[in-house]
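Attaching the record inline, Q. Sequence:
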Amino acid sequence: MKPPSPGRVAARPRVLVVGAGAIGGVVAGNLARAGHDPTVLTTNPDIARSLRERGFRLTGKTPGADVPARAVAGSAAGAVGPFDVVFLATQPPQVEEATGDVLPLLAEDARVVCFQNGLCEERVAKLVGRERVVGAVVAWGASMREPGVYERTSEGGFTLGRLEGQNDAPVAEIAEMLRAVGPVKITENLLGARWSKLAINAAISTLGTIGGDRVGVLMRHGFVRRLVLEIMTETVLVARALRVRLEKVAGTVDLDWLALTDAERRHGGSSLVAKHAVLLAAGFRYRKLRSSMLAAIERGRPPAVDFLNGEVVLHGERARVATPVNRAAQSFVWQIARRERSSSLETLRALHRETR
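Structure, as predicted:
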């Protein structure tokens, strides 16, 4: 993405979206609608067939007519590079393999944008170089109702930033592209934004996987909200030990405040009631959200729990911070993936009993 020569009109960057699940499909569909003409790489033959035949079908919070998908590749070998911007929208367990596959397709000054939850930027940086990596923290939800049919389940945008150093012109250009999907905030504290989102996803996505239902249904239960608070609290304590300055989620949710104090854990009180009220409101806002990790398990794919609660446990060990609820939740998800447990409210109750 070099600047244009004087007197020349800059061409649109060539864009590759890797992964056409819920997030990738909504992003690629809205980019196509805005005239960016992205190439989509999906290894799912049903999704590829649907996109070629009918294009992107967008519903929910950002409805619109079917948007043609002009270039759909079933493998990296079928995509015609070089690309200036690569949006990685795979699940975290596939991010390193996907990055390695598209390495030959990168332009010399290409940027690689990570949409994954967790802390995937460092993994991608080892393959493409830290200077190429941009993190995009996603603050909205989506689901793929059927191949090629995408439902935006909540509104929101992105927090965008680099692993290190100041943001630059390519980051601003990527931000402008993503405004076709939602509002964009550029941050100089990507790590803080990532850890704040990690606290949210380690609770919401993981408990949604264990409970087997949408966020709005699960958050009506007080014991589920308590599990959310315990997982978030452990994550915040680990982040503090690592000297990470947490960012507010979606500009409003203060994780440092939401984390439980020792007094709240022992005695409750009005402050704990207020925190439950915040979670009830969040449950209503994201009431249609269904865990993408649960969808991955249903498709026979490995869950991303090691990139969520597993990261909290791993960094907690290094920082000597206890993370028993995250450790138990991680174990429960793997038991569900191995068909040793089922996703249900009763399984969530079992987790609550075991971690009290």
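The chain is about 45% helix and 15% strand. The mean pLDDT is 91.

More tomorrow.
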